[in-house]
Amino acid sequence: MNLPRIQKGGYMDVDIKKINEKIERKSIFIELLTSEIGKVIVGQRNLIEKILVGLLSDGHILIEGVPGLAKTMIVKTLSDCISTKFQRIQFTPDLLPADIIGTLVYNPKDNSFKPRKGPIFSNFVLADEINRAPAKVQSALLEAMQERQVTIGDTTYPLDKPFLVMATQNPIEQEGTYPLPEAQVDRFMLKLIITYPSMEEERGIVERMTKGDEVVAAPVIKTDEILAARKLTCQIHMDEKIKDYILNIVFATRNPEKYGINDLKGMIAYGASPRASIYLTLASKALAFIRRRGYVIPEDIKEIGYDVLRHRIILTYEAEAEDMTTDGIIRRIFDEIEVP
Question: I want to staple 54 with a disulfide (CB 3.0 to 4.6 A). Which of 61, 101, 116, 300 is the partner?
Answer without folding.
Answer: 61
